Amino acid sequence: MFGVCLYAFPNMKPFFIHSSHIFLSVLLCVLFAYIFGLICRIVGKRISDWLCMNAMRNSCKKNFSTTFSNMLKASSIESSTIRTMIDNGQEMMAYSYMWMKLDSCSDADCRNRFLYVSRIWVLRAIYEGLIVPVLLLAASICLKSCVSPKELLWKDLSDILNNHSGCIVIPIVVFLTCSFIYLLSKEADHCNYTQLREIISAYSDFIEKPKQKEPHQISYTTILI
């Protein structure tokens, strides 16, 4: 996002890049790259959620509450705490409770599964965060193609496009932008669905099943004694 901003607004470069103060330039670039990344993640998530709920309703998964409840019914989870939350309509709280239990689990296999789910969350954040830079880059290219073809990314094509650059570039850029945003939103939704499925599966395997085995182990020990 930071690089796209510098391309879209070249007048910002002197503010961030100082040849006589390299450390200050690096510090400013890192700081604003982090800030822009957070903004892109927040805005991109809203755009992705809106697309899945409206424009991509048929291709995206169902909403969180419905998906979570259906997966929970298909699993072997019988925790009274989770069931109480579900009965009260607190699916998000039950989901957070599962995250907390998996994060506090000391089992090595559980830790590996938790790291895998965390990487899926990072992928989702990356996909959603790329939506805003794609939109900004597309808008910048379209504007520059109308104002001055020589300001395009592909300078070698500026002579060919000449005065008709806007008519040629804008439809192509709009098509590519819509395609990229669709794919990014689709992958973000897929990551969300996969993350939800893995959390429920991991909780069932590493938290719920050991609890179900404990009474049998105690009774078996009692018999031996």
In round numbers, the mean pLDDT is: 75
Number of strands: 0
Question: Percent of residues in helical segments?
Answer: over 70%
Query: How big is the Rg?
Result: 25 Å
Count of helices? Answer: 10
- Derived structural class: mainly alpha
Portion of residues in beta strands equals under 5%
Gross geometry = elongated
- How many strands, what sense, and barrel or not for the largest sheet? none
The end-to-end span amounts to 67 Å
The run of helices and strands is: HHHHHHHHHH
What ranges have pLDDT less than 50 throughout 5 or more consecutive residues? 215-225
Describe this structure in words.
It is a single chain. The chain has 225 residues and is mainly alpha-helical. The protein has helices spanning 2-8, 13-16, 22-53, 64-74, 80-87, 91-104, 108-129, 131-147, 158-161, 165-224. Helix 1 (2-8) packs parallel to helix 8, helix 3 (22-53) packs across helix 7 (108-129) and helix 4 packs parallel to helix 10 (165-224). The chain is built from ten helices and no strands.
